Amino acid sequence: MKKYILVLICLVLTTSTFSQDAKNTDPDIKAVQQLVQNIFDDIWSAKKVETISKYHTKDFILLEHGEVWTNDTIADWCARAAKRDQGVERINSFDFFKTEKTADRIWMAYHNYATFKSDQGESKGQWLESVIAIKTKNGWKLQMMHSTRLPRKR
Model pTM? Predict the structure, then answer.
């Protein structure tokens, strides 16, 4: 019985999952927070299709307000949005409120805030989102994102 308890304790210690808030100093958590920032700045704001493979795994999926998006779906969206949204600046900010980490996987929940500025004025968007990032030989990449739009503010 003692042997089983010792094994259980070792297992818990080696694969422990812990919660952290935005003040966390863990470099992996900071790296994933920066990854989220980079994704929104480069893909969703600047519409740089070439950065998708840098930030996402090949099997990445986005659950976007009832739809399933893949890297190809996102690339198509970027191309259409780049034509449609000329002159619109998107500024992103995040409130990371829950993080769970294991050795090679981080799950994170956050509020995503965007301000859209153009000659026609300014509007704001807000989403409640979560991501799963996995550690690869090239650093952290997103494997999944779940996003729920909240009512848009003008």
Answer: 0.82
Q: What are residue 124's DSSP bridge partners? A: 115, 153
Q: How far apart are CA 113 and CA 125, in angstroms?
A: 6
- Of 62-66, 71-75, 131-135, the range with the lowest mean pLDDT is 62-66
d(CA 136, CA 118): 38
Confirm or reject CATH 2.40.50.40 for domain 20-149, answering yes or no. no
d(CA 37, CA 4): 43
Under DSSP, is residue 88 helix (H, G, I), strand (E, B) or coil? coil
Q: How far apart are CA 85 and CA 47, in angstroms?
A: 10
Write down the domain spans for the chain: 20-149
